[in-house]
Amino acid sequence: MEELNRKSVDEFKESEKNPVIAVLENIRSAYNVGSVFRTADAFLIESIFMTGYTARPPHKEITKTALGAQDSVDWSYFETTKEAIEHLKKDGYKVFAVEQVSDSISLENIADLSADKIAFIFGNEVSGVEEEIISLCDGCVEIPQFGMKHSLNISVAAGIVLWEAVKSSLTLKEK
């Protein structure tokens, strides 16, 4: 572990986090939730918010894919995504749904969002982010896709979006 420069759970908890929060709205698969925990740990993001019927720790399938990240990454549960958004906005976060809509911002332009603190809502594997929730957001972010399928598994989408957000956050810190 030392050679790989990996943090212990305590070191992770004490580390300065990237001001990014992943909001998981009604995610059906606990395996997907566990995968987002691993990604959140890898990129040192602030927290994961889970809403609705999204599974939360302790949960066998989350543990299987999170590989311990459920113990290092801070998380909170909100009964509704609306409550989570209200909490985020009160704390100064800009909130974006990850969704394909007519006026969505392409992910490669994420640096243009210019937010010190940013949250991304990842929706249900089948129905996406609820329309009512999209209207409460500061905007939508879309991952460019060029093939026949124009959707990604939520855990894959979270990995891509969270990395881009952290990369932008690191760039802002350097300036």
Describe the structure.
There is one protein chain. The protein has a single domain (9-174), classed as 3-Layer(aba) Sandwich (Alpha/beta knot), CATH 3.40.1280. The protein contains 7 helices and 7 strands; from the N terminus they run H-E-H-E-H-H-E-H-E-E-E-H-E-H. The protein has helices at residues 9-14, 30-42, 60-66, 69-72, 81-90, 131-134, 154-174; strands at 18-25, 45-51, 75-78, 94-98, 105-106, 118-122, 139-142. The protein is of the alpha/beta class. Strands 3-2-1-6-4-7-5 form a 7-stranded parallel β-sheet, sandwiched between helices. Helix content is 37%, strand content 20%. Strand 1, helix 2 (30-42) and strand 2 (45-51) form a beta-alpha-beta unit.
Summarize the SSE layout with pairings.
Layout: H1 9-14, E1 18-25, H2 30-42, E2 45-51, H3 60-66, H4 69-72, E3 75-78, H5 81-90, E4 94-98, E5 105-106, E6 118-122, H6 131-134, E7 139-142, H7 154-174
Parallel strand pairs: 1-2, 1-6, 2-3, 4-6, 4-7, 5-7
Helix pairs in contact: 2-3, 2-7
Shape: globular
Helix-strand string: HEHEHHEHEEEHEH
Q: Which structural class do the helices and strands define?
A: alpha/beta
Distance between the termini: 32 Å
| CATH C-level category | Alpha Beta
* Fraction of residues in H or I helices: 25-40%
For the record, the count of structural domains works out to 1
